[in-house]
């Protein structure tokens, strides 16, 4: 009697689907736990999300919100240009405008930081 050649593939497919269902359930449970922890931290004022950057510390704002595109040393990156000497190209008001509103036609989005943070960050960048 000849074995059906599709049976091993069907068994593998069923096991794969079963594994995905189990892992999805585990992931959903973990997602709920993480969300509960985040909610508790926010209630206690210990959040470490994007809004946690100190409004008065431009280096912290830059490292949390800008360095991934512009480089930790302002030298530029894959998605953003170098910001060293940006004050030679843009005025303080223009720098703040770009931070607040982004730059059309580029990867620079607006609104990543609050207007207060944008003002502090623009002043700091103009001195770099």
Written account of the structure:
There is one protein chain. By secondary structure, the chain is mainly alpha-helical. It has two domains: 1-48; 53-126, Cytochrome c-like domain (Cytochrome Bc1 Complex, Chain D, domain 2, Orthogonal Bundle). Helices cover 59% and strands 0% of the residues. It is built from six helices and no strands. The chain has helices spanning 7-43, 58-65, 67-70, 86-89, 92-101, 115-126. Helix 2 crosses helix 6 and helix 5 (92-101) packs across helix 6 (115-126). The chain is elongated, with a radius of gyration of 24 Å. The N and C termini lie far apart (80 Å). The model is unreliable at 47-51 (pLDDT under 50). InterPro entries: Cyt_c-like_dom (IPR009056), Cyt_c-like_dom_sf (IPR036909), Cyt_c_BACSU-c550-type (IPR012218), Cytochro_C550_firm (IPR054780), Cytochrome_c550/c551-like (IPR051811). Residues 53-128 form the Cytochrome c domain. It holds the Pfam family Cytochrome_CBB3. It comes from Melghiribacillus thermohalophilus. Residues 33-57 are annotated as: Disordered.
